[in-house]
Specification:
Radius of gyration: 17 Å
Helix content: 40-55%
Strand order of the largest sheet: 1-2-4-3-5-6-7-8
CATH superfamily: Alpha/Beta hydrolase fold, catalytic domain
Number of helices: 11
CATH architecture: 3-Layer(aba) Sandwich
Strand content: 15-25%
């Protein structure tokens, strides 16, 4: 079931898959949309009901004026959960989505059964802040097309690009569907997110997962983040870049289901 839901003075495009079991909410990356999770749906819906949606300014969701904050994005998540009468859910986020998942776990732990942070930086070093500013200026001036190919190089392993994976064209299309306002707004939310120093407060089951060839979030960064959460799990996906769920979906699904079970 796919629909547009009015929440928080905007409109979010959401989809529910599966009919039985506990809820899993999937949170997309910057410059992506809910279709990035297509390879995970058949595996997850065998045991779970799945809610996925386009972050504000992405895919089919409306694009209110930037900037956004992490609080906006976390509030969007909980507003959608309320719309679907989801009292508690497992949260799975990749990149931007992982930051939202961690922020939600800190904001309302009673509504989070567990959370998975995949290929995500929970705080931006100085060079990343500058890179976000530069990309935002570029898309404001030239549109999303200007970053399509550079993002692919950053998001996939060299072997994945050389193999011309079908996912490359899928990601090109997702980037092109992203509203400039949404890209800029969510980029500003990432810049201002301050999640890392509070991770030690979390007392929930958690998974930190990363592609072993992620150029944006090296494994050492994910290991450091994982070490801050007592009892958390850690998985590296071999031969995968930043979008590990698209480049190595079978291995990603096995790791995620192993955690959720």
């Amino acid at each position: 079931m796919s629909e547009n839901v009015a929440v928080n003075a905007t409109r979010l495009h959401a989809q529910v898959d599966g009919a039985l079991g506990p809820w899993v909410v999937l949170l997309n990356s910057l410059a992506a949309d809910l279709s990035m999770w297509d390879p995970q749906i058949p595996a997850l819906t065998q045991r779970f009901r799945v809610l996925r949606y386009d972050q504000r300014g992405h895919g089919g969701s409306a694009a209110p004026a930037a900037p956004y904050s992490l609080a906006h994005l976390v509030d969007d998540l909980f507003a959608l959960m309320a719309h679907y009468r989801i009292e508690r859910a497992h949260l799975v986020g990749l990149s931007l989505g992982g930051v939202i998942a961690a922020g939600a776990a800190l904001a309302r732990p009673q509504q989070v059964a567990s959370f998975a942070v995949c290929d995500s930086r929970l705080e931006m070093p100085t060079e990343f802040l500058s890179a976000i500013d530069e990309r935002n200026r570029l898309v404001r001036a030239q549109g999303m097309e200007a970053i399509v190919e550079p993002m692919l190089v950053r998001w996939f392993s060299p072997a994945g690009i050389a193999a011309r994976l079908p996912a490359l064209d899928q990601v090109r299309a997702m980037i092109r569907r992203t509203h400039v306002e949404g890209f800029v707004g969510c980029g500003e939310a990432l810049k201002a997110a301050r999640v890392l120093d509070r991770l030690a407060e979390v007392r929930l089951p958690s998974l930190f997962l990363v592609g072993d060839q992620d150029a944006a979030v090296p494994a050492a960064v994910m290991q450091d983040q994982r070490a801050r959460v007592t009892g958390s799990a850690y998985v590296e996906i071999e031969r995968a870049g930043h979008l590990a769920n698209l480049e190595q979906p079978a291995h990603f699904n096995a790791a995620l289901l192993g955690f959720l079970k």
